Each structure stands twice: as structure tokens, then as C-alpha cells.
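Action item from last week, closing it out:
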Amino acid sequence: FKWIGFILNFFPNSKIIHCKRSAVDVCWSNYKSLFSSEKLNYSYSFSNLANYYRLYEDLMLYWNKIYKNKFYEIDYEKLVKNKEEEIKNILKYLDLDWDENCLNFHKNKRPVSTASLAQVRKPIYNSSVEKWKNYNLELTSLIKMLNQNTWMLLSRFIHWIKEISVTFCFFKFWINKFNSIHSSHWADNSS
């Protein structure tokens, strides 16, 4: 989600599918997973998880404002409840034809190397919807943090956007420079 601005600027015909899910379900799912990448260490602290999730939400609102027609949003809960209908809607958005194999992805034998390896080998299921409620008492502080609106998050978000903007301008400068050198090279060689 952090790179949507880059993707849509460099590949303007791209289409983004944004699958939204209950904030508590997402955070609980991350918290209980052991990730191999140190970049995901924020997942092991309720405070960090809540902050990161709020930044994600804010950034998705920002991207959606800028690139309104480039997004297809779907709720995870609707997807697991009405699999075929929702998958057909996604395929329609992507200008792709329906194929029964879309419901049989779990039969694919290709290797998978993600934290959701076991899930990929099962049909779409709904047992993870509101699974956090089994741990409601233990997750009370996380739930409170997810419901808080703080200026600290806003300032972090603004700082993050500035960093992304500076990086984007740097890339755009070098792409323009490359294009101008490349086009002048071709113009010199064509005469």
C-alpha cells in the first residue's frame, strides 16, 4: 500500500484492488504470526500495530482521494461470505473472464513462501472473521488504541508522505534526465 503512488505514476493503467478487513482482525492476525523479516517487528507490540494500522488507513484515504477511479475496494468479510459473486466483481473490474478455477486456487501445486502458506492450500473460509473476539479481554488495550485519534499519528503520516514525495521527485528527475538524454541521442543519430 505504501507504493501505490509510485505504481500509478509509473504504470498509469494499473488497477488497484484494496481488500479491507476489520482492524482488530488484521492486527490480531499480525500479532500472533511469527514473521521471518525484521521489517515486520512492529507486529509484536499493540502500540506499534495500532499506529501502523492507522497510518495505513490514512495513506489509503489519501491515495483514494488522488486516484479515485483506480481503486476497487472489497470487504474481506463480504468476500468470504459471497465468494463467487465477489470474485466475479473483481474480475469484471479487471476486464477478465470468469473461470471456475478462481474458486479452486487451493488445488494449485505451485510453491508458496508466505506466512499464509497453510491458508493458500484451503478453499476460502470464514472462520477467521471476528476471530479476535475469542481473545477480547487480552486485546482490550489494542482495541482502545485502534479507536484513538492522535495528532502524533497525523504528524508521522505527514512526515512519511514528505519522504515519499521527495523520493518520487528524485526518481522523476532521473527518469526525465534519462528520457532527455535518450531522445537527444536518437535525434543526433537520425540526422
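Closing note: Strands lie at 16-20, 71-75.
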